[in-house]
TrEMBL record, chain A:
WD repeat ranges, renumbered to this chain: 51-92, 139-179, 180-221, 222-263, 308-340
Signal peptide range: none
Keyword annotations from UniProtKB, A to Z: Repeat, Transducer, WD repeat
Record InterPro entries: G-protein_beta_1-5, WD40/YVTN_repeat-like_dom_sf, WD40_G-protein_beta-like, WD40_PAC1, WD40_repeat_CS, WD40_repeat_dom_sf, WD40_rpt
Protein family according to the UniProt entry: Belongs to the WD repeat G protein beta family.
PROSITE patterns for the chain: WD_REPEATS_1, WD_REPEATS_2, WD_REPEATS_REGION
Repeat found in the keyword field: yes
Gene3D superfamilies associated with the record: YVTN repeat-like/Quinoprotein amine dehydrogenase
Record has Aminoacyl-tRNA synthetase as a keyword: no
Gene Ontology biological-process entries: signal transduction
Protein name in UniProt: Guanine nucleotide-binding protein G(I)/G(S)/G(T) subunit beta-3-like
SUPFAM superfamilies from the UniProt entry: WD40 repeat-like
C-alpha cells in the first residue's frame, strides 16, 4: 500500500528530526557535568530487622506514607501489614486468590490494594468499623494480570496490567475512569509523580511512557532498553525517571531534556533488575536483581557504591520509606529485610 | 527433627537448583507422557540412534576444539564420521550456538555468562587449565577455584572475593563449570578442582533431556565397572524407579547404553575422563540430588514460554497517523539542554543530601540502628528543628509538604491579609481526594467562598482562568479548579512565598536557638520572675504565685 509506505516514511523522518533535536541538546554528557562533585563514598547498609511470617515467595511490598508501617504480598495468599520497627504484624489479610503480584498502601493509611493473576485489583479497608479488614472493592475490567497498582487518594487508584494498558479507577463506584493505552507489551510497573499529576509506566515493549493523568494522554516515550522494563520510579524532584530492566541495566531519563541521561551497568552484573527505589535525596539508587543482591548506585556518577547481600533468593521488591530512613527489601526467600 | 547439616545444605541447593531448573525450561517443548513414549517406541528407537550418533560426533568435535594440546591422544577419536546434519559448525571464537537475535530474558543472561566463560578459557588471557598429577593418576583439564575467583576479580572489576564467589556459584549452578569430585554446583575460593562444561551441554542450547536419556545414561554408568563411576544413592534409586517405569522398553534402553559404552571404549582415556565428568555435570543440572526422593517428572513441567511481544505487529493506517501526530507533538517540545539538566540534578541532590539518611548520619540517631525513637519524637513535636525549617526555604512545595511549614506560611499570610490564596489552594487539594459523590458539592462550596461575586474570601484570578473555571463548573469534577489552582500557586510562589522567607516570623524560627521549653526552663524563668518581682510583693501574693506554678 503506497499510502502506508508514505505515512511510515513520514513517521520515520519525524523520528529522525526528534533524534537530531535531542542530540542538539547534548551540549555535555552527565558524566562530564558531574566530574567535580563530591564523591559519595562506599555506602554500607546493614540489616536491622528481618520480617518473618510469610510462607512463600514475596512478590511485592510498599511503604505507608510518613509511617513505619508497610504492606507485603506473598504467594502464600496473604497480605501482611507490618510495623517494621517492632516487626509486629498489624494485619494479616487472607486473599481470595493467592497469585498476587503487587500491593499498595494508600497515602492516607486507610486502604491497601493488591492484585495479580486474577486480573483484578482488590481494595481492602484497614479501618473498618468493627475492626475487621474486609474487601471494599474489587476492580475488575483488565483482560490481563495486574502487575502494579498505586493509590492517588482514597478515591482513586491507577493500575498497570499484562493487557498492555494502565487504568485510572474510581474506587467508590468501582468503574474505570480512564484507560491509558499505547504500550505494545505487558505493562510491568508504574510510579506516580510527587505532585500526583503524572505517572510513568514501564513495559515489555522495552519503553517507558509518561502519562498525564488528567488529560488522558501519553506525553513522552523513552526507549533505549534492550529488554523488558520491570521496575520504574521517579527521581524525587519529579523531573527525571529511573528504569530497571531484564537487560541488567538501569537508566536515568530526564523529562525536560526528553532523553536518556545515563545508564547504570557493570560487566559483573548479569541478572535482570526486578525492582528499584531512589534514596530521599536521589543521590543513591537501590536496585534489586535476580542474583539475590541489591546494588546501590551513585545516581550522578553512575558508579556502584554498595551491595546489599543477605537474601537467599531473588530480590523481588524494594522500597525506601518516605522519610528516607530505611529501605525494605522483599525476596523469594519469604523474608523482608529492613536496611540502613 | 535433626537432619544432618549436609542434607540441609543439599536441600537448600536442591531447591535453588530446582528454581533455576524452572527458569531453564522456558523455551522447551512439553515432555511426552510415559504412555505416549511406549507407543512411539519404534520411532524413538531410530531417533535415539541418530541422536547418539550425533552426540558422539558432537563430543568428538568438542574434544578437538578444547584440547588442541593433547592431540596425540585423539588420533582414535578422529575417525571418519559423517558430519551431523542439523547441528551448525562451532566457530573458534564463540563456542555457543545461541541465536544472537533471541531476546528472551534467559538467553540474555546465558549470552553474558557465555561471554565470560569463553574469555576465561582463552589460552592467553584466561585461567591456567592444566593437567594435574595426583597419586597414581593424572587429572586432565582442571583449574582451581581460587584461580577462577582471582581471574574474575581481575577481569570483571570485582573488589570483593565474596562477590566473585557469588557470581561464580550462579554460573556453576547453570552448569557452565563444575567441581570434578562433587555433585554440588558452587564455586569455592580454594584448591578445589573445576572443569569447564562442553558447549554441547550448555543450557542455552535448550534441549531438555528426557527420562529415557537419563535412563540410558545411568544404565551406561553401571556397565562401566569402575569404582569412581559407581552410582550415588540417589542415582541408584532413580535407576530403580526408571527401570520400573520403562519396564517394557528396558531392552531398548539397555541396547542404547551398550552401544554408547562400546563407542566410549574406543576413545582416549583422558578424553573419556573429561567427557564423563562433563556428562555427569550435565545431569547434575538436569536431574539434581533430591532429598525428598526422586526428581518427579512433574517438577519438570514447563514454565510459560516467553513469547516476544507484539513488536512485529503492523499498524493500521490510523495507528500510523496517530503515531505521526504524537511524534509531531514531541518535535514541538522544547528540549532542555543537558548541561542545564545536569545542573539542576546536581543542585537538587546537593541540597537534599544532608537530609538523606543513607548519605548523612541523622541527628539524633536513626531509630532503626539504635532502636531509639527520639528522632521521630523530635519530628512530631511542635518545635521543628533548624534543619527542618531550613528545608522550607528550598521551595514552596517543601514548605507546604510539611504541616508545620504550612501552618507558619498560613500565619504569615494572615498577617498580610492574603490568606485566601492558600486556603483556596488547600481546599482544592482536599476536594481532589474526596469521594466522587461529594465532589460536586465541594466544588460549589469553593465557588461560593472564593470565586463568586462578593465572595467572603475572594481570590484574585485573571479573567482567562476565571472564564475557564466557570465553564468547568457546568459539569463539576475533581479537576475543575486545576487551572485556577495552578495560577494561584504561581502567584503565591512568586510573590508571597518570597516575602515569607524574608519575614521576621520565618527568620526568627530559622535563626533562633532552641528555646528551653523543658520543665527546667519553665522553672528557671519563673524563678527569675519571682526573684525580680517577689521582693516588692506582699507575702500573700508571693505564696499565691508559687502555688499556681
Amino acid at each position: 500500500m503506497d499510502e502506508m509506505d508514505q505515512l511510515r516514511k513520514e513517521a520515520d523522518s519525524i523520528k529522525d528530526q526528534i533524534t537530531a533535536a535531542r542530540k542538539a541538546g547534548q551540549d555535555t554528557s552527565l558524566q562530564e557535568a558531574v566530574a567535580g562533585i563530591t564523591v559519595v563514598g562506599r555506602v554500607q547498609l546493614k540489616t536491622r530487622k528481618t520480617l518473618r511470617g510469610h510462607l512463600a515467595k514475596i512478590y511485592a511490598m510498599h511503604w505507608g506514607t510518613d509511617t513505619t508501617l508497610c504492606v507485603s504480598a506473598s504467594q502464600d495468599g496473604k497480605l501482611i501489614v507490618w510495623d517494621s520497627i517492632s516487626t509486629n504484624k498489624v494485619n494479616a489479610i487472607p486473599l481470595k486468590s493467592s497469585w498476587v503480584m503487587t500491593c499498595a498502601y494508600a497515602p492516607s493509611g486507610n486502604l491497601v490494594a493488591c492484585g495479580g493473576l486474577d486480573n483484578m485489583c482488590s481494595i481492602y479497608n484497614l479501618k473498618g468499623k468493627d475492626g475487621n479488614v474486609k474487601v471494599m472493592r474489587e476492580l475488575a475490567a483488565h483482560t490481563g494480570y495486574l502487575s502494579c497498582c498505586r493509590f492517588l487518594s482514597d478515591s482513586e487508584i491507577i493500575t498497570s496490567s499484562g493487557d498492555c494498558t494502565c487504568v485510572l479507577w474510581d474506587i467508590e463506584t468501582g468503574t474505570q475512569k480512564t484507560v491509558f493505552a499505547g504500550h505494545q507489551g505487558d505493562c510491568m510497573s508504574l510510579a506516580v509523580s510527587p505532585d500526583f499529576k503524572f505517572f510513568i509506566s514501564g513495559a515489555c515493549d522495552f519503553t517507558a511512557k509518561l502519562w498525564d493523568i488528567r488529560e488522558d494522554a501519553c506525553r513522552q516515550t523513552f526507549s533505549g532498553h534492550e529488554s523488558d522494563i520491570n521496575a520504574i520510579g521517579f527521581f524525587p524532584n519529579g523531573n527525571a525517571v529511573i528504569t530497571g530492566s531484564d537487560d541488567a541495566t538501569c537508566k536515568l531519563y530526564d523529562l525536560r531534556a526528553d532523553q536518556e541521561l545515563i545508564t547504570y551497568q557493570d560487566s559483573s552484573i548479569m541478572c535482570g533488575v526486578t525492582s528499584l527505589a531512589p534514596s530521599l535525596s536521589g543521590r543513591l539508587i537501590l536496585a534489586g536483581h535476580d542474583d539475590f543482591n541489591v546494588n546501590i548506585w551513585d545516581t550522578l556518577k553512575a558508579e556502584r557504591v554498595g551491595v546489599l547481600a543477605g537474601h537467599d533468593n531473588r530480590v523481588s521488591c524494594i522500597g525506601v520509606s518516605t522519610d528516607g530512613m530505611a529501605c525494605c527489601t522483599g525476596s523469594w526467600d519469604s523474608f523482608l529485610k529492613i536496611w540502613n | 527433627m535433626a537432619e544432618a547439616p549436609q542434607q540441609q545444605q543439599e536441600v537448600k541447593e536442591e531447591e535453588e537448583e530446582e528454581e533455576q531448573q524452572q527458569e531453564v525450561k522456558e523455551e522447551e517443548e512439553e515432555q511426552q507422557q510415559e504412555m505416549e513414549q511406549q507407543e512411539k517406541e519404534q520411532q524413538e528407537k531410530e531417533q535415539q540412534e541418530e541422536e547418539n550418533q550425533e552426540e558422539e560426533q558432537q563430543e568428538e568435535e568438542q574434544q578437538e576444539e578444547e584440547q588442541p594440546d593433547s592431540s596425540e591422544g585423539s588420533e582414535e577419536a578422529k575417525e571418519s564420521v559423517p558430519m551431523p546434519k542439523a547441528r551448525p559448525l562451532l566457530s573458534m571464537r564463540s563456542m555457543s550456538i545461541v541465536d544472537p537475535e533471541d531476546k528472551s530474558p534467559n538467553m540474555i543472561v546465558y549470552r553474558k555468562i557465555e561471554d565470560i566463560v569463553t574469555r576465561i578459557q582463552d589460552e592467553t588471557e584466561g585461567v591456567p587449565i592444566r593437567t594435574v598429577k595426583s597419586f597414581m593418576t593424572k587429572i586432565p583439564s582442571v583449574v582451581t577455584g581460587a584461580d577462577i575467583v582471582q581471574w574474575m576479580m581481575k577481569n570483571l572489576a570485582i573488589e570483593d572475593p565474596a562477590e566473585a564467589m557469588h557470581i561464580g556459584s550462579l554460573i556453576a549452578a547453570q552448569g557452565y563449570f563444575f567441581p570434578i569430585s562433587d555433585h554440588v554446583l558452587s564455586l569455592k575460593d580454594d584448591g578445589t578442582f573445576y572443569r569447564f562444561q562442553a558447549p554441547y551441554f550448555w543450557p542455552s542450547n535448550c534441549w531438555e533431556p528426557e527420562n529415557t536419556d537419563y535412563a540410558i545414561y545411568l544404565c551406561k554408568r553401571t556397565m562401566q565397572n569402575k569404582t569412581r563411576l559407581e552410582l550415588a544413592d540417589y542415582e541408584a534409586e532413580n535407576l530403580a524407579r526408571l527401570q520400573r517405569a520403562f519396564a517394557r522398553k528396558w531392552e531398548f534402553i539397555y541396547m542404547q547404553a551398550e552401544a554408547q559404552v562400546k563407542i566410549d571404549r574406543k576413545k582416549d582415556k583422558t578424553e573419556r575422563k573429561i567427557l564423563d565428568s562433563q556428562e555427569r555435570a550435565f545431569w547434575d543440572v538436569h536431574r539434581p540430588v533430591s532429598v525428598y526422593g526422586l526428581a518427579e517428572e512433574g517438577t519438570q513441567a514447563q514454565s510459560p514460554i516467553h513469547t516476544p511481544s507484539h513488536l512485529g505487529r503492523k499498524g493500521t493506517k490510523e495507528d500510523v497517523e496517530k503515531e505521526i501526530s504524537f511524534l509531531n507533538l514531541q518535535l514541538d517540545r522544547h528540549c532542555m539542554k543537558m548541561s542545564k539538566v545536569a545542573d539542576s540534578l546536581m543542585t537538587y541532590t546537593e541540597q537534599y543530601m544532608e537530609y538523606d539518611p543513607f548519605v548523612t548520619a541523622t541527628e539524633p540517631s536513626n531509630p532503626w540502628s539504635s532502636d531509639d525513637p527520639s528522632f521521630w519524637d523530635v519530628e512530631a513535636s511542635k518545635e521543628p528543628s533548624q534543619q527542618r525549617v531550613r528545608k522550607w526555604g528550598f521551595s514552596l512545595q517543601e514548605a507546604l509538604k510539611d504541616h508545620a511549614g504550612q501552618e507558619l506560611f498560613l500565619k504569615f499570610l494572615e498577617s498580610e491579609f492574603s490568606s485566601e490564596n492558600l486556603r483556596f489552594w488547600l481546599a482544592v487539594q482536599d476536594m481532589k481526594r474526596r469521594p466522587q459523590q461529594e465532589v460536586a458539592q465541594r466544588a460549589q462550596e469553593i465557588w461560593t467562598e472564593f470565586l463568586a461575586e462578593g465572595a467572603p474570601s475572594s481570590i484574585n484570578l485573571d479573567s482567562h482562568s476565571y472564564e475557564r473555571t466557570s465553564h468547568n463548573l457546568k459539569d463539576p469534577g475533581r479537576y475543575s479548579y486545576v487551572d485556577a489552582q495552578d495560577h494561584i500557586y504561581k502567584l503565591m510562589k512568586s510573590d508571597s512565598y518570597a516575602r515569607f522567607l524574608r519575614s521576621n516570623l520565618y527568620q526568627d524560627l530559622l535563626m533562633a536557638r532552641k528555646k528551653p521549653e523543658t520543665e527546667q526552663g519553665r522553672r528557671t524563668s519563673l524563678e527569675k520572675f519571682t526573684r525580680s518581682v517577689g521582693k516588692s510583693l506582699t507575702g500573700k501574693r508571693l505564696t499565691g504565685l508559687m502555688q499556681s506554678s
